[in-house]
């Protein structure tokens, strides 16, 4: 890549070159190997890859503000802030103006909130939220509401269905982007035997459209602090 096409900070440092030079020194896989920057990763300061001023410039570059929740949606969400099960059930089943006729494009988020509250209510009434569970149980019974939050995106299907365009992948699939990076220097058998294809990172959630991955997540059984293994993954 020509230097003119690379990101150059106000200090004159070329970001991609700095990441590359740091990456070849790493003895273990790091985000820099995918040219991904976490400006809060203290290793960049410790290894003098970037200065704090440079990291702050990276944080603010083309910063996208968090979108504001529409007031009517916030009001509906707050209607579930009640103190007992009976009131929560009343809030869930209360007739809404948008119920009939229901417009999925306009009120998908409202319906998603109600559906999520109802499903969590089922778990609460069953007493399951008071018990200790393995990570997979939490992914299936609790974190599935995140998957359903993408339900109004055109082409969304679950991981096991074929023919869709945008996937919400859980557990059984690995990252294609990660696999492509690890295998980019793989060649066919000749002087030496062809190396076995390396699998990409397995994430608890991968958001994918065709062959392009837009995001991923890793969920843990419980929160153990900002410096725990799942945070670094």
Question: What does this entry look like structurally?
Answer:
The chain is of the alpha+beta class and 233 residues long. The chain has three domains: 58 residues, no CATH class; 61 residues, no CATH class; 81 residues, no CATH class. It contains ten helices and four strands. Strand 3 and strand 4 form a beta hairpin. The two termini are 29 Å apart. About 5% of the residues have low confidence.
What topology does this entry show?
Layout: H1 15-23, H2 43-46, H3 52-60, H4 71-78, H5 85-93, H6 104-125, H7 135-141, H8 144-148, E1 156-158, E2 166-169, H9 176-182, E3 205-209, E4 212-217, H10 229-232
What are the defining features of this structure?
8% strand, alpha+beta, 4-stranded mixed sheet, elongated, 233 residues
What's this entry about, in short?
36% of the residues lie in helices and 8% in strands. The protein is α+β, with helices and mostly antiparallel strands.
General form: elongated
Structural class: alpha+beta
Distance between the termini: 29 Å
Let me know the largest β-sheet: 4 strands, mixed
Number of domains: 3
> Would you count the extended β strands for me?
4
| Count of alpha and pi helical runs | 10
**Residue runs with pLDDT of under 50 for 5 or more positions:** 157-168
Strand content: 5-15%
Provide the residue-averaged pLDDT: 80
What share of residues is helical? 25-40%
List the strand order in the largest sheet.
1-2-3-4
Order of helices and strands: HHHHHHHHEEHEEH
């Amino acid at each position: 890549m020509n230097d003119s096409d690379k990101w150059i900070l106000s200090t004159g440092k070329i970001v991609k070159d700095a990441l590359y030079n740091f990456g070849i020194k790493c003895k273990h896989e790091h985000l820099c190997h995918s040219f991904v920057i976490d400006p809060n990763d203290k290793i960049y300061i410790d290894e003098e890859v970037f200065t704090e001023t440079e990291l702050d410039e990276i944080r603010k570059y083309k910063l996208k503000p968090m979108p504001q929740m529409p007031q009517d949606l916030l009001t509906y969400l707050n209607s579930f802030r009640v103190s007992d099960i009976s009131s929560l059930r009343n809030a869930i089943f209360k007739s809404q103006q948008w119920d009939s006729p229901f417009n999925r494009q306009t009120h998908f988020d409202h319906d998603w909130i109600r559906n999520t509250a109802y499903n969590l209510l089922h778990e609460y009434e069953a007493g399951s939220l008071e018990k200790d569970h393995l990570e997979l149980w939490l992914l299936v019974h609790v974190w599935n509401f995140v998957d359903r939050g993408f339900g109004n995106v055109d082409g969304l299907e679950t991981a096991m269905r074929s023919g869709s365009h945008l996937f919400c992948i859980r557990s059984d699939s690995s990252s294609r982007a990660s696999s492509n990076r690890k295998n980019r220097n793989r060649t066919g058998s000749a002087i030496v035997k062809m190396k076995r294809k390396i699998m990409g990172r397995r994430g608890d959630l991968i958001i994918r459209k065709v062959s392009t991955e837009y995001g991923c997540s890793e969920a843990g059984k419980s929160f153990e602090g900002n410096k725990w293994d799942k945070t670094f993954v």
